[in-house]
Amino acid sequence: MADTAELKKDLWKKLADSPFVMIGLHDGGHSIPLTAQLDEDQVDTLFFFVGKDNRLAKGGAAMAQFVSKGHDYFACFAGTAAIDNDFAQIDKLWNSHVEAWFPGGKDDPNLALLRFDIDSAELWETDMSVSGKLKMLFGGTIKSGEEGSHAVVGTTAES
């Protein structure tokens, strides 16, 4: 069973490996899939390159959900989304995958950098033992310690 510090560390490793999240505003619209851009210098922050016409561009209270590539880690983030077109940050996060969506490059007139500041998060990691997996497979009782780890945190900072 992982402690909270391990859960936070694993979160950022898993996000780096598969940076895809569903994110939506609290205005009642559906969440949409976006690729998170991670900046290790920015604690509790995800960045997304979006079009200025994207429904998230208006910003506001938001929620994002993450499922790791191996489906062994889950996270739900609550926070605030806002456009932050700091050119230094755009330059820092720019990559060939983003460029494919914005043919005008960093100066594309439709380009916007959406900043999502995480206020709180709920994290789950399934790290079941072999015996726990066998019990699930054959209908046995899962005991404490075999089900995985869970934490509700006010910051995703590792320390």
UniProtKB/TrEMBL annotation:
Signal peptide annotation: none
Pfam family, one: Pyrid_ox_like
The name this protein goes by in its record: Pyridoxamine 5'-phosphate oxidase family protein
Domain of life assignment: Bacteria
General stress protein FMN-binding split barrel domain mapped to chain residues: 8-135
